[in-house]
Amino acid sequence: MLIPQAINHSENQNWLNLKGLGLAMAINEFHAIHPGLLVILTDSVHHSRVLEQEISLCAKDDALEVLHFPIWDTLPYDVFSPNSDIVSERMKFLAQISSVKQNAVVVMPAQNLMQKLPNKDFIIGRSLNLTLGDIFDLHRWRSLFEKNGYIHVNEVREAGEFVVRGGILDLFPMGGHQAFRIELFDDEIESIRIFDTETQLTINETDLIQVMPANEFPFDDAARELFLSRFREWFEADTRKNTLYQDVRKSIKFSGIEQYLPMFHQQLADIFDYLPKEAVFIHCQQTAPVLHTWEKQINARYDERRHDIQRPILAPNEIYINAENTL
């Protein structure tokens, strides 16, 4: 048995000396005893991804779900937006964890404990299902896609894009790795085909698509108005000349917009709001030093950028939870 001896299975665990496949095997052994939700905290994205694969490799229970929640591949207060694949993976995880309560293992970098998130109502309320045979109002659904942050393009290539051509809709949902071509017969979904975004040729068929929001923030009229209102209230800036304000007013998503998440939501959540109270956390590293180092970096980057009047930024407590409050 690889599980550390003399442990209370209902309490959070500190497994600091298990390495490689030994850690993955111990997690599977522990899950057999505690079949609820386990949350595995690592010190980096790389460690999380490797461990996710190793847990699946060692799993004896085919029904076990291993979910990965990546952190953004940007630094605090970056002027760049996270990679779209990372955003897609995060949206997929938030949709999954909103319903998964047991028989699952969540693997994530510890830094995710500190980051504020959209609440579950936003994720669940804006997730859509398209099924073969559904009645489909093309104009209504186009409006819903745009409300969910999807971009209308000439040709679908990446997640978060769609295009309408007559009675055909091409769509690449966030959280997935496949693009879909929906063909209508009058106002009914006649076929749903999976197609290759490089060749635009059909490669398979399906009868169901799940469509999640394209971003962690809404970008419809109400959300943009909330941003503009809060920008005027929270920042001392000339809105007539400020490019951030003017971009949102013109429905343009500026680079690094994710750093202004609280300005688009009435209320935010955190990862603990998504997890059942019975979830058991397993610390693979010294989590406290990892979080305190991350907090120092957040504060240092805030101090470096807080005086830029052309790009005002939010205080750390608006975007992150204090490290001490997560432990």
Secondary-structure topology with pairs:
Layout: E1 13-14, H1 20-33, E2 37-42, H2 45-58, E3 65-68, H3 84-97, E4 104-109, E5 117-118, H4 120-125, E6 128-131, H5 138-147, E7 151-152, E8 161-165, E9 168-172, E10 179-185, E11 188-195, E12 202-206, E13 208-211, H6 221-234, H7 243-249, E14 268-269, H8 271-274, E15 280-283, H9 287-305, H10 316-319
Parallel strand pairs: 1-15, 2-4, 2-15, 3-4, 7-8
Antiparallel strand pairs: 5-14, 6-13, 8-9, 9-10, 10-11, 11-12
Verbal overview:
By secondary structure, this protein is of the alpha/beta class. It has 2 domains: 13-122 and 255-326, Rossmann fold; 128-211, Penicillin-binding protein 1b domain (Penicillin-binding protein 1b fold). Helix content is 32%, strand content 20%. The chain is built from 10 helices and 15 strands. It has helices at 20-33, 45-58, 84-97, 120-125, 138-147, 221-234, 243-249, 271-274, 287-305, 316-319, and strands at 13-14, 37-42, 65-68, 104-109, 117-118, 128-131, 151-152, 161-165, 168-172, 179-185, 188-195, 202-206, 208-211, 268-269, 280-283. The protein has a 6-stranded mixed β-sheet, covered by helices on one side. A 5-stranded parallel β-sheet has the order 1-15-2-4-3, with helices on both faces. A hairpin with a 2-residue loop joins β10 and β11 (188-195). α1 packs across α2 (45-58). The longest helix has 19 residues, at 287-305. It is flat. The two termini are 28 Å apart. The mean pLDDT is 91. Keywords: ATP-binding, Nucleotide-binding. This is Transcription-repair coupling factor. InterPro entries: P-loop_NTPase, UvrB, UvrB_inter. One of its GO terms (molecular function) is ATP binding. Residues 128-217 form the UvrB interaction domain.
